[in-house]
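Re: beginner question about structure tokens

> Can someone show what the tokenized structure looks like for a real chain? I only ever see the sequence side.

Sure, here's an example I had lying around. Input first:
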Amino acid sequence: MTETLGALPPRRRTGEEPVHLDGAAHGNLLGFWAWAYSGLAGNTLRGALAEYIVALALDAAHGTRVDWDSVDIRLPGGPEVEVKSAAYLQVWGQSKPSAISFSIAPAEGWNAATGAVDGARLRRADVYVFCLLEHQDKETLDPLDLTQWAFHVLPTRTLDEHRRDQRTLALSSLLALDPVRTDFAGLRTAVLAAGTRDRPDPGDSQDSHKYSNN
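And the corresponding structure tokens:
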């Protein structure tokens, strides 16, 4: 009999599951989460947190995150979403706030169910959400405070038309593409709109969602 090694999808856990040995508990999963994943301002965890925040806004945070999936969030019957994050403040000492840039490189695709790789390098989502942790005071920085974030939403076709082969995007270059800037409350509407309707070319003054510094 040939053993098959299919996909092992994660199951959503509660945090109460024990770390155990012969029936005796030696801590629990919540303790592990607190130990390993409390550094929310670090680049790696901040990126995962940004995905979770976007998933909350889209009512898509019921399951579990799929590592290395070809897109970050899949909405049944709706757009597929790629989430990128950046912040002015880092966990290390800084002489000044960080310059903001986002990764937008086209990439190979990976199927989590089969393990197969699609070697074509492209942007596979329908919509990009650029999440910027705008707060610039380290003493009061709180990545869980949604008022400290701004979200810039852009259809992928805009990136493909104007930045096809570009791998990173500075904040000034992002704003030149005329994304929809929104807070958390407006994020779902902005994502669904970007995924379903045509957008004018960047710089069209008639666009009611044109970014403003005001």
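Each token stands for a local structural state, so reading them left to right follows the chain. The two ends are 67 Å apart (CA to CA).
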